[in-house]
Design a protein that fits this description.
Layout lengths: L2 E8 L2 E8 L4 H8 L18 E8 L2 E8 L12 E3 L11 H8 L9 H14 L5 H7 L11 H13 L8 H7 L10 H6 L13 E3 L5 H4 L1 H5 L3 E3 L6 E4 L2 E5 L4 H5 L2 H6 L3 H5 L5 H6 L2 H6 L6 H7 L4 E5 L5 E5 H4 E3 L2 E2 L6 E8 L6 E7 L10 E10 L2 E10 L6 E2 L1 H7 L6 H14 L10 H19 L6 H4 L1
Parallel strand pairs: 1-5, 6-7
Antiparallel strand pairs: 1-2, 3-4, 3-5, 8-9, 9-14, 10-11, 10-14, 12-13, 15-16, 16-17, 17-18
Helix pairs in contact: 2-5, 17-18, 18-19
């Protein structure tokens, strides 16, 4: 078994753990450290019962995020501060714990540690006090007893008691408010003394970025395998109308990017429909694409932007491939042995960009799509100069609807053109019946989503009643 000697700070103690590279932090803290406040439940990142804080140096600052310890490999905690609920406890209940208790947010208590961790992460990171964003911060935590109203009352009370400000030292503010224990003040210099971990290179190692899907699909394999953690280089840049996103950029970084929000005004709200905050903190753009799920949200989003991938081999050679050519058959991609996705790029036409992303799932937020779709349009007067349309959940791969796009190009906007585009799209898809709906249902969903794209982007040129 491949092992690693990971040195990190666990709550207030520095430890060195000689464990399997692919052991997840949940097993380490519960089974080896006997810190049982972090609960074992779904082991898929869906419930939040195992949530911990992971603090690491990012661009010269110590940043903490709430993450699911059931999906966090021990190889990723070296040089970090790993905080369980025990590391937030003090002699008395801290203000977050007290607010949850006072407002009836606790019944059986199984989920409570995860909620407290997620709330603490919000106070560590939020720029302004906002109830909707606070709710989103704890959306990855499930409670089967309380009905959530007591928890929401606690969130509201905490925002009233502790208004956030943009001080230069949020950590010190939270220590003074007793939301964090005193020992947090000394963590940053202690982490700086931990040397960089050097792991042996192995061309056969399994490459892992966030691991939010890999550790769900193949936990036993990863626990017994050599892993290669991909470097976390998160960059989103715009140069000469060309937007470039490094593959290791997390979905949460995407969501909060001012650049992407300026290009796509609805982007932040749309990203809230994709996974939960702890998953978005770990999941990466490259991982979402390489996983090649037929309903991968980022694949559908970027297919409609005619994105290009930059692939890099072990010896540093790079090649470019269109995203629409990257997906070949079910879970098969154009990625050679040793290659990894280095970056993604797309061209940005002059503003405003006509772009729409739509998703239908059993739950509106945080759920896997039944069908998702995106449409990009570039117009000259009322004629379509360029169209890119994508769809997920209706084929074995994230699908670029090439025939429909070719038909739309050069057409004047009209209800009849949209209807014909919908008809052509139906000939390009091959949905199957599964737990997310029947094939007939998915065909209907895509039809409605394509119409919704056009009505959202061109409401003054189309007649909704005629289309629907």
């Amino acid at each position: 078994m491949n092992k690693i000697s990971a040195t990190f700070i666990l709550n207030h103690r520095q430890v060195t753990a000689k464990v399997a590279l692919g052991m997840v932090a949940l097993d380490y803290i519960r089974n080896l450290q006997k810190l049982t406040g972090s609960k074992q439940a779904c082991r898929t990142g869906d419930c939040g019962a195992c949530s911990v804080l992971l603090g690491r140096h990012e661009k010269g600052k110590l940043i903490y995020h709430a993450v699911n310890s059931c999906l966090l490999p021990m190889a990723a905690v070296h040089g970090c501060h790993l905080v369980t609920i025990e590391g937030l406890n003090t002699a008395e209940l801290n203000p977050i714990q007290q607010a949850v208790l006072d407002n009836g947010g606790v019944q059986c208590g199984f989920c409570s540690p995860g909620f407290v961790v997620a709330m603490t992460a919000y106070f560590l990171n939020a720029q302004t006090a906002n109830l909707d964003e606070f709710v989103d911060a704890v959306a990855g935590n499930l409670c089967r007893c309380s009905g959530y109203m007591g928890i929401k009352r606690a969130l509201r009370q905490l925002l009233q008691q502790y208004p956030l400000n943009n001080s230069e030292n949020r950590l010190q503010d939270l220590i003074e408010r007793q939301i964090l224990p005193d020992y947090f003040v000394a963590i940053a210099p202690r982490l700086a003394e931990i040397p960089i971990l050097k792991t042996p290179s192995n061309h056969d190692a399994i490459m892992v970025a966030g691991g939010t899907d890999l550790f769900v699909q193949r936990p036993q394999l990863l626990a017994a395998s050599q892993l290669k953690l991909l470097e976390s280089n998160q960059e989103i840049t715009l140069t000469q109308q060309q937007c470039r996103i490094t593959a290791s950029t997390t979905l949460e970084t995407l969501k909060n990017s001012p650049l992407l929000q300026s290009l796509f005004p609805q982007f932040k709200k749309e990203m809230e429909m994709i996974a939960t905050t702890p998953i978005r903190q770990r999941a990466t753009v490259g991982g979402n694409l390489a996983n090649a799920s037929p309903i991968a949200d980022m694949a559908i989003f970027f297919l409609a932007l005619a994105a290009q991938l930059e692939l890099r081999s072990l010896n540093g050679e790079t090649r470019s491939v269109r995203l629409q050519d990257f997906f070949q058959t079910y879970k098969q991609i154009d990625l050679q042995a040793g290659e990894q996705i280095a970056a993604l790029s797309f061209s940005c036409p002059p503003q405003p960009i006509l772009f729409s992303f739509e998703k239908v799932s059993k739950r509106q937020y945080s759920d896997i799509a039944s069908v998702n779709s995106a449409l990009f349009l570039e117009l000259e007067q009322e004629t379509i100069k360029t169209a890119h349309l994508s769809a997920g959940g209706v084929a074995a791969i994230p699908l670029y609807l090439a025939k429909t796009c070719a038909y739309l190009q050069g057409k004047a906007i009209s209800n009849e053109v949209v209807k014909q585009a919908v008809n052509i799209a139906q000939t390009e898809i091959s949905p199957i019946s599964d737990q997310r709906g029947s094939a007939e249902y998915k065909r209907l969903l895509l039809r409605q989503l394509i119409i919704a794209h056009f009505l959202k982007l061109l409401p003054d040129l189309l007649n909704a009643e005629d289309l629907l």
